[in-house]
Write a structure and sequence with these properties.
Blueprint: H1 2-47, E1 70-71, H2 77-85, E2 108-111, H3 124-139, E3 146-148, E4 154-156, H4 157-161, E5 164-169, E6 172-177, H5 185-198, H6 201-206, E7 208-210, E8 221-224, E9 231-240, E10 246-252, E11 261-263, E12 275-276, E13 281-283, E14 288-290, E15 294-297
Antiparallel strand pairs: 1-9, 2-11, 3-4, 5-6, 7-15, 8-9, 8-15, 9-10, 10-11, 10-12, 13-14
């Protein structure tokens, strides 16, 4: 009897020890998994932080050019010099229209100090149109500030400044004078908001002429239309060597509306943020273009 009781107690102790070992092992596994998850989160957080800005690079003109290359202003040197002189933000983070950080902070080289507004409007094609319009406004070339709505209707800054506003009824657009005349910068920004609301990659594409990638110039646009979305980026700077080969930098906004930023070249870090002007695929951090997507402004 005593032996049976001893054997039964031994079995219970053994079972308890086995259960405790399993419990400790599971706790050990869960602890390791938790640490791995924390390490992964920390790694992602670190990897998504942009590199601190170089204090000597304050605008596109300051970006170091590849060896053997020099800046090339192209046919419209005035527009080129304007793009080259736009200041960068002191901080190197891209903000959304609502003040939040863009989720991908690994796509950009630097951020243009132009702001984004407080509405979800300044997206890809909008940023391209804004850079062009801001230049023309800066130069006093007001009659050249005009864009077509996706409906095909032309909206001119000069008319908007005189108080004309669109009345939209389905696909029909008419312009009537319903506001007082106002040529201020604040009213110009309101005009741009209207353009951002009713224009896009499809309408902008029709306003641009094709250009061979080997002839790329500052102010040109890489643009694709799509269903439902396309994308567009602005050529900010071009360099050229003695053999005539060119490289370029590009800037974009994206969805949702965000600050305009110069893109990195993730596929060739040796020359980043520059891209080679050659036939074929142009892969940017958030979109893939073809060299045949290059366009230029019709009034260039």
């Amino acid at each position: 009897m005593f032996c049976l009781l001893f054997f039964d107690a031994y079995k219970n102790l053994l079972a308890l020890w086995y259960f405790q070992m399993q419990y400790n092992f599971l706790n050990f596994v869960f602890m390791i998994m938790r640490y791995l998850v924390l390490i992964a989160i920390a790694s992602c957080s670190f990897a998504n932080k942009p590199q601190p800005p170089d204090p000597t690079v304050n605008c596109c003109r300051d970006i170091p050019v590849p060896k053997g290359y020099s800046l090339f202003t192209g046919g419209d040197s005035s527009f080129s010099n304007y793009l080259l002189s736009i200041k960068f933000k002191d901080t190197n983070t891209v903000l959304l229209f609502n003040g939040d950080l863009k989720s991908n902070q690994n796509a950009h080289y630097r951020v243009l100090n132009l702001g984004v507004g407080k509405r979800d409007l300044q997206q890809c094609a909008d940023a391209v149109m804004r850079l062009r319009a801001e230049y023309l406004y800066h130069k006093g070339l007001f009659s050249r500030i005009k864009f077509h709505f996706t409906s095909g209707d032309l909206c001119k800054w000069t008319d908007y400044a005189k108080g004309f506003r669109p009345v939209i009824n389905g696909n029909n657009v008419t312009f009537t004078k319903s506001a007082s005349e106002d040529h201020s910068k604040k009213n110009f920004n309101s005009y741009l908001d209207l353009i951002f609301s009713y224009c896009g990659t499809a309408s902008l594409h029709k306003e641009l002429n094709s250009r061979n990638i080997k002839d790329i110039q500052p102010g040109d646009v890489l643009i694709q239309t799509g269903n439902p979305y396309g994308h567009a980026v602005m050529v900010m700077a071009v360099t050229k060597n003695k053999e005539g080969k060119r490289m370029f930098t590009i800037a974009q906004s994206y969805m949702p509306a965000q600050e305009i930023h110069v893109l990195l070249n993730k596929n060739d870090k040796a020359i980043s943020p520059w891209y080679e002007a050659k036939e074929g695929v142009i892969e940017t951090p958030e979109w893939t273009f073809q060299s045949s997507d290059l366009r230029t402004w019709q009034d260039n």
